[in-house]
Task: inverse folding
């Protein structure tokens, strides 16, 4: 028995569990084997567009977000038509959506924040649902995938830069790469301005990179912690006296971490949406 | 048994499947964009309007009300200014009217005084003329009386002798000299 448990690598299980997969596992009920498509070769670059477990749960998250909002919207319409006081589920969702719209999007982007609010709202709820799916039995967190968070961050990057370009114009946009140095004029100023360009460009790229890594890291780390705690059961479960005790303590710890993860799921969705709004706002009001 | 549970976890493993969350599958980028952008447009078209509309309408109506209040305010200010101006104009025109009236009244009074004076003068003149005429008449009467009296007295004195025309002419001539003397004296006295 001891021999066998040592052969099993907890670390590998942990990594495997948080990794993407080609099947969606609802064991012992059923397993969905997703279709495998051949690799695409674009020049020297190879990409495989086959759907994976994270794609599956991403679509689930998107559908859930849509259903939540559609249902709430319909109830709200009905309540308004009947001139009844808003209440219950629809009112809670309305308050939540308006919080994201007013306190995250408009408060941080400024006077034309309403234009970007749908994007920030979609980002927030999509990330929130993706985060929460990881806490559901058989679920998996799409935002625990670097490619997903990276794709979202790149999207935000393009929104920041293109919206900034449209708002500031070509000259104003170039100023965000070649900033005017206050208090330095002439040749010294020009040299400094050109010297700042790589730093400014790096700054533009670091923002989405940080967004992607922060979300991915937070989501993955939580699962690591939970799985590591469960691993304790397998590592020390053979101790004759303590095995029940270890089980209880570990379960209690996991419950605590799960609750923490619940907070983190909301917090990271908030942080991603908030920082996206802040970056868009910074770019919009760059002068 | 523990082994069974772990193998259950590992059951899903297939050859070539990602072994850790740190492997980046670029295909997922496209899936993410597809899913998220679709979600974004679907939500924007079908879900957000119903939830956000009430708030947006409220915001718009507040904005409109503010603009309207601003307009009303400027209008009220303009009206107040106009009123002030009108009031000032009315005051000056009233003052002008009063001034004109006063002037007219003054002129009228002066004219009236003048006219009265003229009438008075005319009356006085007429009275004086009347008095003069009356006096002249009285003088003529008095003279006739005096002639008669003198004649009566003289006839008393010299009885019948003094009754012909030659005598009478004599007395009248005398009285004329008397009158001339008196009017000479009277000129200084008058």
Result:
């Amino acid at each position: 028995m001891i021999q066998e448990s040592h052969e099993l690598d907890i670390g590998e299980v942990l990594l495997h569990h948080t990794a993407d997969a080609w099947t969606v596992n609802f064991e012992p009920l059923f397993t969905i084997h997703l279709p495998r498509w051949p690799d695409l070769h674009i020049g020297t670059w190879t990409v495989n567009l086959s759907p994976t477990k994270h794609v599956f749960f991403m679509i689930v998250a998107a559908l859930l977000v849509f259903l939540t909002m559609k249902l709430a919207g319909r109830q709200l319409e009905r309540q308004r038509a009947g001139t009844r006081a808003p209440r219950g589920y629809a009112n809670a969702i309305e308050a939540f959506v308006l919080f994201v719209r007013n306190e995250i999007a408009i408060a941080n982007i400024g006077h034309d924040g309403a234009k970007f609010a749908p994007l920030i709202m979609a980002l927030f709820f999509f990330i929130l649902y993706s985060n929460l799916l990881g806490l559901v039995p058989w679920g998996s967190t799409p935002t625990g995938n670097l490619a997903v968070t990276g794709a979202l961050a790149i999207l935000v990057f393009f929104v920041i830069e293109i919206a900034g370009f449209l708002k500031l114009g070509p000259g104003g946009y170039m100023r965000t790469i070649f900033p005017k140095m206050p208090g330095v004029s002439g040749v010294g100023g020009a040299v400094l301005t050109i010297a700042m360009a790589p730093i400014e460009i790096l700054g533009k790229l670091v923002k989405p990179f940080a967004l992607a890594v922060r979300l991915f890291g937070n989501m993955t780390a939580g699962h690591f912690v939970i799985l590591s705690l469960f691993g304790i059961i397998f590592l020390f479960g053979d101790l004759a006296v303590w095995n029940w005790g270890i089980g209880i303590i570990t379960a209690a710890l996991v419950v605590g971490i799960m609750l923490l993860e619940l907070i983190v799921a909301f917090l990271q969705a908030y942080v991603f949406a908030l920082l996206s709004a802040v970056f868009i706002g910074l770019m919009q009001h760059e002068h | 048994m523990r082994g069974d549970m772990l193998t259950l976890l590992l059951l899903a493993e297939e050859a070539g499947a990602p072994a850790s969350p740190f492997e980046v599958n670029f295909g997922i980028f496209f899936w993410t964009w597809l899913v998220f952008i679709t979600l974004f447009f679907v939500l924007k078209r079908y879900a957000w309007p119903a939830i956000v509309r009430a708030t947006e309408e409220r915001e718009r109506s507040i904005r409109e009300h503010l603009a309207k209040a601003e307009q009303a305010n400027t209008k009220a200010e303009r009206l107040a200014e106009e009123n002030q101006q009108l009031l000032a104009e009315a005051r000056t025109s009233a003052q002008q009217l009063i001034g004109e009236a006063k002037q007219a009244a003054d002129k009228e009074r002066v004219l009236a005084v003048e006219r009265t004076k003229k009438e008075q003068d005319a009356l006085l003149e007429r009275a004086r003329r009347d008095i003069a005429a009356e006096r002249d008449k009285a003088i003529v009467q008095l003279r006739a009386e005096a002639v008669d009296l003198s004649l009566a007295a003289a006839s008393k004195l010299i009885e019948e002798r003094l009754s012909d025309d030659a005598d009478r002419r004599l007395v009248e001539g005398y009285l004329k000299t008397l009158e001339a003397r008196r009017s000479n004296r009277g000129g200084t006295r008058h």
Q: What stands out?
A: Chain B has a mean pLDDT of 83. Residues 50-189 of chain B form one domain. Chain B touches chain A through 46 residues (CB under 8 Å).
